[in-house]
Amino acid sequence: MGAMRKALLGAVLAGVMVVGTGAGARAVGGEADLAHHGHLSLWEGRIGVWLASENHGPSDVSGATVRLAFSEPMAGGQELPPSCLWGSDRVVVCRTGELRAAGAVGELALDLRTAASPDEVTVDISTVWMDGVVDRNARNDRHRVLVLATGDPYVF
Known about the structure:
about 10% helix; mainly beta; about 160 residues; four-stranded antiparallel sheet; disordered N terminus; 1 helix; five-stranded antiparallel sheet; elongated
């Protein structure tokens, strides 16, 4: 396993530990407001994911990890961008890179094959790690999107 993938996996595991510490946990790095927006399309056994992550502030975020959980399994053997790794055949986790407060947007595009040709897929999008920064407005970085196999973009 490469150093980058080990670091990403460590970040995901650290995020799970931070999330599990409860609502009373205090962040070391301040407070930010992450938001994920984009669209998803499903056609002929393929799902396209276009995701933009941004930070509305007030603190910068040195890095975050976003989790994409699919209701259907994806086909095996697919390569992901260097910033992503497979959590299972239904989960992809990706790092966003640095997100400055009210700054530039981190973008991600995936073109994945599903294991079958489903009529619909539900995709859960959520932040699982923010490098010690608290986000008290999780409504804009957690989405559940039903995507029908029409090829149309479903916006979130």
